[in-house]
Design goal:
This protein is α/β, with parallel strands linked by helices and 360 residues long. It is built from ten helices and twelve strands. α5 links the parallel β5 and β6.
């Protein structure tokens, strides 16, 4: 870093994205960043063709700062009002705005093992963070969030890295305790078997639900995230957005995202396929002696007693299969495996069997 960087950020440890294959690199099976293995909805592909035929001059115009059509599509999908929908440049931006809106001047609590960006945002925005350890089985315990009614709570559900899900009845305990502070539920993976907290929005003014179109709707490259809440809460996020970047979601992404949200049948089919493939790989890994945490996400966290997580990650990479390994004490022996196509999962299982044969 340069000598000109503000001292406030000199010690910042940024988020580390998953490894990305480079152009010209030999093909790999990419199971490390929880992307959807299936292409976007047919309606999205049709719209892309139409956009390709339109004059490029339209890009000279700013995007709709109100994101009107997409907010309407999301509102219709969830039976909400458009005033209850916020759209950001990926759910990471939505979460960043939420950290700014509800973290400055108060403490925020989240699990010790969860989406790594929470720690990064807390450090970046100078927000005090309290880490509540997952229990020995990697579950979130609601009682850990009933200590201080003034702190803001952030929970990924299903939890990032582990894939474990917190039932809504447990989430309600937290919401009822924090009547004067926000509870932010990050539902990046909810569409793969979880139960969305959107159903609780009519009951709780202190609930903000954050989702992404990167996973279940195959639009990771379009960078679109949403937040759902009561109109007053959405107005809070808009205050942050319009003080930062009114045109935060580009014209093309807005159009593609609206088309994806409206294609309900394709969305449901992709989610069902991924859940079936998750079951396939879970059973296949367990048959080979792995411990696989029960997951309702589009990934599984798995470990084997014969080799540590880093070894398995490296041996799979040598076979052109990318998974994710986290150098963190409690999960160092695990790898996180994104759910790919059925063929991807079968090739992974074959590679794992070969690796285990080598180390036995």
């Amino acid at each position: 870093m340069s000598k000109f960087l503000s001292n406030a950020f000199a010690g910042l440890v940024p988020y580390t994205p998953g490894e990305q294959p480079q152009p010209g690199q030999r093909p790999v099976i990419k199971l490390n960043t929880n992307e959807n293995p299936y292409p976007p909805a047919p309606a999205v592909r049709q719209l892309l063709q139409q956009l390709d035929e339109q004059p490029a001059g339209q890009l000279r115009l700013y995007s709709d700062p109100e994101v009107t059509d997409l907010r309407q599509a999301v509102a219709e999908f969830y039976d909400l009002q458009p005033e209850q929908v916020f759209v950001g440049n990926g759910s990471d931006e939505v979460l960043a705005f939420a950290f700014l809106a509800y973290g400055k001047g108060r403490r925020m609590a989240f699990p010790d093992i969860t989406y790594a960006f929470y720690n990064v945002f807390a450090a970046l925005f100078d927000v005090e963070a309290r880490l509540a350890p997952l229990d020995e089985d990697f579950n979130i315990q609601p009682v850990d969030y009933l200590e201080d009614a003034e702190e803001t709570v952030v929970l990924a559900n299903p939890n990032a890295i582990t894939g474990k899900n917190l039932p809504l009845v447990a989430l309600e305990q937290i919401l009822q305790f924090h009547t004067d502070s926000m509870v932010i539920v990050d539902e990046a993976y909810v569409d793969f078997g979880g139960e969305s907290a959107v159903a609780l929005l009519p009951k709780y003014e202190n609930l903000l639900v954050v989702q992404t179109l990167s996973k279940s709707r195959s639009l990771a490259g379009a960078r679109v995230g949403i937040a759902l809440g009561q109109p007053a809460v959405i107005a809070d996020l808009n205050t942050i957005k319009f003080s930062f970047n009114p045109y935060n979601v580009n014209r093309v992404s807005q159009a593609l995202a609206a088309a994806a949200v409206r294609d309900k049948a394709y969305f449901a089919k992709c989610c069902q396929n991924i859940m079936a493939n998750r079951q396939l790989v879970t059973e296949g890994l367990e048959a080979q002696g792995f411990q696989v945490l029960p997951s309702l996400a589009n990934f599984v966290l798995a470990r084997h007693q014969l080799l540590d997580g880093q070894q398995l990650y490296q041996k799979l990479k040598q076979r052109d299969i990318l998974v994710r390994w986290f150098d963190e004490p409690r999960i160092r022996d695990f790898v996180r495996i994104s759910i790919g196509t059925r063929e991807d999962m079968q090739q992974l299982l074959a590679a794992v069997a070969e690796i285990l044969q080598e180390v036995r």
